């Protein structure tokens, strides 16, 4: 019974976010009305700023700039609204949420084999959404990874959220957990570690702590491959499983995005990792990727972004096809993984 209430409550909560936070022209007319708008926004996103504090004052100034930016940006096919980042400066956003500026694309991974298991895939449907197949876990406010998807697809068991903190702590040679080549290092770790544990066993803290090796590996992968750097190849891969990608997220439109098919101007300085979980096209025949982000449900379309697909540049909008990787799961065990007897038993 409790669960039913919890589910109803969660749906209500998510719908609130899907609708987004709107404001009216009259709320922009005076300092006092803007202040009320700010209070309303804080309540909506459960943000607390101590009344009368210096921080409250500074944040309010930033908020007003964001309000004006959102209000004055017109003639774009996607929506910008006051999302959960509205009282954060672009610089802060950029440093925290689009910070993997170390050239994902510059060096090929030493472990990339050049093999692409989906190269001969044909007959792709016009649209596909892994969420409808139960292969996507709920949106979190933390790092994402495509391993949850392949695990569900191959084991046919309900989706289990896996531990992002284990990757943050245990994947070495990194800064902010996402320095260039993070995805292949993460897959490499999971492969050699003999798996990854659940979010519940090893909860998210955000900070980089010491790597604890959990006894039980709840999801295993056998290897990983890079998608050739073009959108056609990415489509073949996504039709078969969720795929980890990196994009150039370092722009104010991306920060304030709240829905629609995104086609903002962006470069190819890959700065942020996400997971492509599907594709499709809208009623205007604009093609898009369905991408799961890790900013929580208070951003985008309840945590997702639809990004324009099939643009002239084969590397994709914001470089989405430039650094795409997916985990591989075979029926047999991979020879590099450490032997974990419990686990072998599980699989037999
Ligand atoms: C794709 O087809 C070619 C030609 O038949 C074959 O040589 C290649 O091994 C196939 N690739 C994969 C990944 O199966
Ligand atoms: C490549 O594989 C080696 C082991 O052969 C491993 O030590 C290294 O971390 C891997 N590199 C990446 C980028 O995954
Ligand atoms: C986004 O799409 C709109 C409508 O199709 C178009 O007018 C605009 O130029 C596009 N923006 C970019 C940056 O390509
Ligand atoms: C990409 O990053 C480089 C080095 O940090 C910088 O010089 C360049 O201006 C950036 N390009 C864009 C389009 O942001
Ligand atoms: C399709 O294009 C029209 C005209 O540009 C626009 O008004 C409408 O919102 C678009 N529909 C979608 C689903 O984007």
Q: What report would you give on this structure?
A:
One of its GO terms (biological process) is proteolysis. Keywords: Disulfide bond, Hydrolase, Protease, Signal, Thiol protease. This protein is an alpha+beta fold and 348 residues long. The chain folds into 2 domains: 71 residues, no CATH class; 215 residues, Alpha-Beta Complex (Cathepsin B, Chain A), CATH 3.90.70.10. It is 31% helix and 12% strand. The protein contains 10 helices and 10 strands. Strands 2, 4, 6, 7, 8 and 9 form a 6-stranded mixed β-sheet that branches. A two-stranded antiparallel ribbon has the order 1-5. A two-stranded antiparallel sheet has the order 3-10. The protein is globular, with a radius of gyration of 21 Å. One 2-acetamido-2-deoxy-beta-D-glucopyranose binds next to loops.
Features:
single chain, 10 strands, globular, 2 domains, six-stranded mixed sheet, alpha+beta, binds 2-acetamido-2-deoxy-beta-D-glucopyranose, 348 residues, two-stranded antiparallel sheet, Cathepsin B, Chain A, disordered C terminus
């Amino acid at each position: 019974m409790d669960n039913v209430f919890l589910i109803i409550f969660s749906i209500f909560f998510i719908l609130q976010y899907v609708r987004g936070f709107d404001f009216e022209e009259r709320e922009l007319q005076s300092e006092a009305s803007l202040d009320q708008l700010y209070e309303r926004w804080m309540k909506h996103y459960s943000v607390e700023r101590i009344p009368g504090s210096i921080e409250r004052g500074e944040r309010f100034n930033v908020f007003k700039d964001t309000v004006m930016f959102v209000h004055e940006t017109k003639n774009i096919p996607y929506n910008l609204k006051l999302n959960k980042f509205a009282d954060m400066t672009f610089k802060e956003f950029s440093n925290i949420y689009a910070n993997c500026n170390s050239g994902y694309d510059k060096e090929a991974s030493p472990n990339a084999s050049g093999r692409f298991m989906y190269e001969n895939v044909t007959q792709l449907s016009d649209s596909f959404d892994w969420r409808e197949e139960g292969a996507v876990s709920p949106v979190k406010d933390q790092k994402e990874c495509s391993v949850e998807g392949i695990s569900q697809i191959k084991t046919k068991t309900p989706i289990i959220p896996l531990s992002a903190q284990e990757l943050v702590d245990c994947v070495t040679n990194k800064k902010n957990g996402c320095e260039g080549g993070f995805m292949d290092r993460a897959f490499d770790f999971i492969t050699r570690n003999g798996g990854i544990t659940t979010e519940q066993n090893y909860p998210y803290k955000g900070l980089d702590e010491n790597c604890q090796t959990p006894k039980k590996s709840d999801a295993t992968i056998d290897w990983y491959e890079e998608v050739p750097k073009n959108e056609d190849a990415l489509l073949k891969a996504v039709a078969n499983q969720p795929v980890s990608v990196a994009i150039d997220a370092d722009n104010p439109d991306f920060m304030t995005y709240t829905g629609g098919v995104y086609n903002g101007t962006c470069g190819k300085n890959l700065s942020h990792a996400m997971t492509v979980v599907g594709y499709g096209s809208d009623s205007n025949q604009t093609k898009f990727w369905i991408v799961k982000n890790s900013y929580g449900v208070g951003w985008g379309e309840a945590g997702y972004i639809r990004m324009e697909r099939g643009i002239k540049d084969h590397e994709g909008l914001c470089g989405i096809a430039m650094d795409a990787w997916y985990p591989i799961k075979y029926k047999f065990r991979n020879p590099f993984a450490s032997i974990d007897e419990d686990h072998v038993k599980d699989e037999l």
